[in-house]
Amino acid sequence: ESRIRSRAGSRARVLEVACGTGFTTLELANRGLRTVGVDMSPELCALTNAAAAHFAVDARAVAGDGCALPFADGAFDAVFSESFFEHVYDVDLTLREQARVLRPGGLLLLLDGNLLNPLTLLDLLVFYPIRTRGRRGGLRWLLTKRRVHRNLYGYLSRGRDEDVKTVWWWRRRFSRHPELRVLEIGTSAPDGHPGVPRILHPFVGACKVLAEKA
C-alpha cells in the first residue's frame, strides 16, 4: 500500500491479478484506493463483489485470464500480484500484459515464491509430493527446467504447479523488458522481517519486484 501510494497517489487505480477470495483487493479499497481484481474463478469473483457491496468499498472483481487481461491499454496506475507468476508458463507474455494495462509511469509490484527460502524449499521437496500423491514435487521435479506446462492454477489440497524462482532469475527476466524500468528487486525480508541481517535477505520472505512502466 505504501509503495503504491508513494508512486501513484492516494486514489490510484489498482489492479490485482489473481485476486482469489479478494481479501487484498477489498482491503486496499477500504484504505481508499480504487481497486479491481481479476481471477480465473467466477465463483471467487462473485464472492469478492458480494463482499464489496456488503462493506460499501470501491472494489470489484472480474473473471478473466491473468495472461490475457480483459482491460484497455493504460487503464491502471498500479498492477499488483502475489503468488501468481509461479503458476504461469509464459512469464514474458504475462509481464507484457501487465505493462500494457499500466499507464506510462505506472507501478508494477509483484511478490512471488522464493526458491532460496528454506521453508519454501522444504515444502517443495517434502510436503508438495504428499499433497499431490507423488505427481509433483521432490528433487527430480525441482530440478526440471520448466515445471509449469500451461497457464493453469491447481487448488489447495489438489496441489499447485509451483515454479518458484530466485531474485537473480527475476533480475535476468526483467532485463528482457525495456518497457518496464526496475526500481527494486529483492525479497520481502526488509518489510516483513526488518531485524534479519542484510546478508540473509535472499533466503527470507518472497521475491519482490517493483518496476515502472517506461
What Rg, in angstroms, do the CA atoms define?
A: 17 Å
Mean pLDDT rating = 90
Low-confidence stretches: 153-158
What helical percentage do the residues reach? 25-40%
Order of helical and strand elements: HEHEHEEHEHHHEHE
Structural summary, described in words:
- There is one protein chain.
- By secondary structure, the chain is of the alpha/beta class.
- Helices cover 33% and strands 23% of the residues.
- The protein contains 8 helices and 7 strands; from the N terminus they run H-E-H-E-H-E-E-H-E-H-H-H-E-H-E.
- The protein has helices spanning 2-8, 23-30, 42-55, 91-101, 118-131, 138-142, 167-174, 189-192; strands at 13-17, 34-39, 59-63, 76-82, 102-112, 180-187, 207-213.
- Strands 3-2-1-4-5-7-6 form a 7-stranded mixed beta sheet, with helices on both faces.
- Helix 3 (42-55) links the parallel strand 2 and strand 3 (59-63).
- Helix 2 (23-30) packs parallel to helix 3 (42-55).
- The radius of gyration is 17 Å and the shape is globular.
Which short descriptors sum up this protein?
214 residues, alpha/beta, 7-stranded mixed sheet
Secondary structure layout plus pairing:
Layout: H1 2-8, E1 13-17, H2 23-30, E2 34-39, H3 42-55, E3 59-63, E4 76-82, H4 91-101, E5 102-112, H5 118-131, H6 138-142, H7 167-174, E6 180-187, H8 189-192, E7 207-213
Parallel strand pairs: 1-2, 1-4, 2-3, 4-5
Antiparallel strand pairs: 5-7, 6-7
Helix pairs in contact: 2-3
